[in-house]
Amino acid sequence: GGPQRDLVSKLLSGNQALDPAQDPRAKAKWKHLLRSVRVKDLRFTHNEVSTTFQHGRHRGEPVKTLLTDCQRLGKPPSDMPPLVAVDWDNQLWTVFGNRRLKALKDFQEGCPRTTVTVQAIVHPFAESPSSLVVKFVDACTTRNNGASAPFR
């Protein structure tokens, strides 16, 4: 609580417009930053993730359903919304999509000879919208430099 939390909450309002899982228009708005990224190059901001999706059309579904879909298809589903990452200090930090990243990393672990890639909107830190920077800082609870995030 307190004034700091109130300020962060105000700065975070409207952030859903940055995330294609929450706002389908975000993909078109940020298409100039859209690129294919190796899953192994993405870091978690969260220390741990929920077992169910919170946003988008899969809201309420278990994260493991995405892993099952990847295993069935042999790759991530083509209709999966892009992740949103910040390129900070030459490292790609996932700001929106930590649950999807969990499923994708688990999939990559199961097929180590394959390079799994995913679409991501990658914002250079210095050019990121201020609300995204605040979300990045607020979400960055990792205790292992983003290497993994177990289910809570």
What can you see in these coordinates?
The structure is a single chain. The protein is an alpha/beta fold. It has one domain (about 1-140): Conserved hypothetical protein from pyrococcus furiosus pfu- 392566-001, ParB domain, CATH 3.90.1530. About 30% of the residues lie in helices and about 20% in strands. The protein is built from 5 helices and 5 strands. The protein has a 5-stranded mixed beta sheet, with helices on both faces. Strand 3 and strand 4 form a beta hairpin. The longest helix is centred in the C-terminal third of the chain and has 13 residues, at about 100-110. The radius of gyration is 15 Å and the shape is globular. About 30% of the residues are buried.
List the defining traits of the structure above.
single chain; about 150 residues; alpha/beta; Conserved hypothetical protein from pyrococcus furiosus pfu- 392566-001, ParB domain; five-stranded mixed beta sheet; 5 strands; globular
